[in-house]
Write a structure and sequence with these properties.
With 359 residues, this protein is an alpha/beta fold. The chain contains 17 helices and twelve strands. Helix 13 packs across helix 15.
């Protein structure tokens, strides 16, 4: 009954013939997981906010054909077989709207209208225990679904964050303080709390950080940037993040690190190690095989061989790139980097010279 956000796609891809219901805290990625599954399956997702509908909206508009009344189905219903009908915010819909969905959910039809074959029906709601308002679902409606309690995990979020271009500073901060990824307000504070950290609100902070993190100003020095971060994740967590960003300024410039990896010996704060690795992964993703070779030499200075593969994997995930390497490149690297590189090649993270590059 309980699944992680990263497992939602696997359940959807099984194409169970029954409707699914996803319950979970706000902002953990339920809706995004459904959209991602649709993209990976190559099908269209029809995202319907049930709370915005009246009962008559589901049935459609009546019109007369050959002297008989028929109903034109709404445009937000699927037309192609195998599509996904996503009924979001289901428990925010009043009872009259919920009742209008009974036949649609169980029989995949409304009156004479039938959903296309193999349509997947999914509903989602925020947990009432999360301080969210809403209407109770009736027992007959609940009994029409297979229910899943959706939980978040830092590992799932991190993989998504790397692919989505979330600022390395945020990924690194949350690696050290994973409890700050998602922190719901206390039950007695839900009405007065405006901002709190969730995977969704960290995306907001990433956008704020990128907008203000220029050479002239810097995120942590801008009053408006900090106020915006406070308004996204709350002042306590935003303050801790700003302190972490200030620490990252102690790290030598990446160009200097690539030119002389020994300059990393001056960095003594172990909490910054993961940030250095993320920054190297980002540089590898942006560069060429030559940059990749340099990065492996740098990695050997700061990380064991298994971490080299870990960072390479991050770089590859960002844009599904593969880097062409030669035996000479491996020889020119240090022992651990060479071994790690060979492991990466074995797992097809890196392609040997002569292979076709994948972009």
């Amino acid at each position: 009954m309980s699944i992680l956000v990263g497992q939602i796609g696997d359940v959807i891809k099984r194409r169970l013939p029954h409707a699914l219901y996803l319950w979970g805290d706000p902002g953990i990625g339920k809706s995004e997981a459904v959209a991602k599954a649709g993209r990976e399956m190559g099908v269209q997702v029809f995202d319907v906010r049930v709370s915005q509908l009246d009962p008559t909206d589901l049935r459609g508009i009546p019109h007369v054909v050959d002297g008989r009344t028929r109903w034109a189905p709404p445009v937000f219903f699927p037309k192609e077989p195998g599509s996904i009908l996503f009924l979001d915010e289901m428990n925010h819909a009043p009872q009259s709207v919920q009742s209008a969905t009974y036949q649609l959910i169980l029989e995949k039809r409304l009156g004479e209208y039938h959903l296309p074959p193999d349509t997947i029906v999914i509903a989602a709601s925020n947990d009432r225990g999360s301080g969210m308002l809403g209407f109770d679902l009736s027992l007959p409606l609940k009994n029409r679904f297979i229910h899943f309690e959706v939980k978040h995990s830092y590992t799932d979020w991190r993989e998504w964050a790397v692919r989505s271009g979330i600022a390395p500073e945020i990924i690194s901060f949350l690696h050290n303080f994973q409890e700050d990824l998602h922190k719901m307000p206390a039950p007695d504070k839900t009405r007065e709390t405006k901002a709190f950290p969730t995977p969704r609100s960290w995306t907001f902070v990433s956008d704020i950080f990128k907008a203000y993190n220029n050479e002239k100003e810097g995120f942590e020095k801008s009053i408006t940037a900090m106020e915006a971060a406070n308004g996204a994740i709350g002042s306590d967590v935003a303050h801790r993040f700003s302190l972490f960003v200030k620490k990252t300024r102690q790290i030598p410039d990446m160009n200097d690190i690539f030119a002389d990896p020994n300059c990393l010996n001056k960095v003594t704060d172990q909490g910054l190690a993961y940030y250095i690795l993320q920054s190297i992964a980002f540089r590898v993703e942006k560069g060429t095989a030559h940059v990749f070779q340099k990065a492996c030499k740098v990695l050997e200075k700061v990380a064991p061989k298994d971490v080299v593969v870990f960072v390479i994997h991050d770089a590859v995930r960002r844009h599904d790139k593969r880097y062409l390497v030669t035996a000479e490149m491996v020889k020119d690297m240090g022992k651990d980097a060479g071994i790690a590189l060979a492991d990466a090649m074995q797992n097809e993270l890196i392609l040997p010279a002569g292979s076709q590059k994948v972009n």
